[in-house]
């Protein structure tokens, strides 16, 4: 199957398989059975085999799969975020925490620039990343060929910044602002909301 046609859930599970396989590899394991990977991923062996088929990986399910080969097949399909230049807009409490995490814990993630409109933050290195004025968005997005952005501005500014990002050719936005964003079909927006998840958990555990 062409990678553009992979269902979103398959992509999510494949990313999880990759993380699990890297852990197994680190612990010295070289082969894995679909049922083992399924146990770790919390799904079924049939699901694992179906996903592997969808990404075009065929091994021998009876003898087990060679982890190195499976990782190679997965990496050929996934678009590795480690090699992509990413920008972050809104260097407040959350923005700084995210920058610190990536700079110090995940240095292979390439956040090339941060942006803020506060003159006290502009032209400074914050949590290991240079912060620019939002006036420089156009220039830096074009220069670094940026396609991914993390949005940590207040909800009231999120759509206005998103419209600019879309206009500049950004293709994926990870939105932390608690507001649904309108983007064209050519752009993918993922929303992360701790409050929403907490409220959901509170409800679900109440009725358990
Ligand atoms: N998704 C989550 O789970 C989660 C958790 C915490 C906060 N949030 C959200 O993340 C966002 C940031 O929260 P925070 O606590 O860091 O806020 P904050 O006020 O500390 O930081 C916001 C930053 O954005 C900057 N900013 C404002 N308008 C801007 C614009 N037009 N262009 C560029 N920069 C601009 C401000 O100068 C400030 O530095 C808010 O929308 C908040 O609701 C989400």
TrEMBL record:
Subcellular location field? Cytoplasm
Residue ranges annotated for the CoA-binding domain, each copy included: 82-180
Which SMART domains does the record associate with it? CoA_binding (SM00881)
Biological process terms from the Gene Ontology for this record are: negative regulation of DNA-templated transcription; response to redox state
Q: What does this protein do?
A: Modulates transcription in response to changes in cellular NADH/NAD(+) redox state.
Q: What HAMAP family does the record tag this protein with?
A: Rex
Q: What is this protein called?
A: Redox-sensing transcriptional repressor Rex
């Amino acid at each position: 199957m062409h990678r553009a046609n992979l269902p979103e859930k398959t992509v999510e599970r494949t990313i999880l398989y990759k993380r699990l396989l890297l852990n197994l590899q680190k612990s010295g394991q070289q082969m894995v059975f679909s049922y083992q990977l399924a146990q770790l991923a919390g799904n079924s062996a049939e699901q694992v085999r179906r996903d592997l088929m969808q990404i075009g990986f065929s091994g021998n399910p009876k003898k087990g799969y060679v982890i190195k080969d499976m990782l190679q097949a997965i990496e050929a399909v996934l678009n590795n975020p480690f090699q992509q230049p990413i920008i972050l807009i809104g260097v407040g409490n959350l923005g700084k925490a995210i920058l610190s995490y990536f700079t110090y814990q995940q240095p292979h993630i390439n956040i090339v620039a941060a942006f803020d409109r506060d003159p006290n933050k502009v032209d400074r290195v914050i949590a290991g990343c240079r912060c620019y004025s939002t006036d420089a968005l156009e220039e830096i997005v074009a220069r670094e060929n940026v396609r991914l952005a993390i949005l940590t501005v207040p909800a009231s500014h999120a759509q206005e910044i998103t419209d600019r990002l879309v206009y500049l050719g950004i293709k994926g936005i990870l939105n932390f602002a608690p507001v649904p964003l309108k983007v064209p079909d050519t752009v993918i927006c993922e929303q992360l909301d701790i409050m929403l998840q907490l409220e959901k958990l509170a409800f679900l555990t109440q009725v358990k």
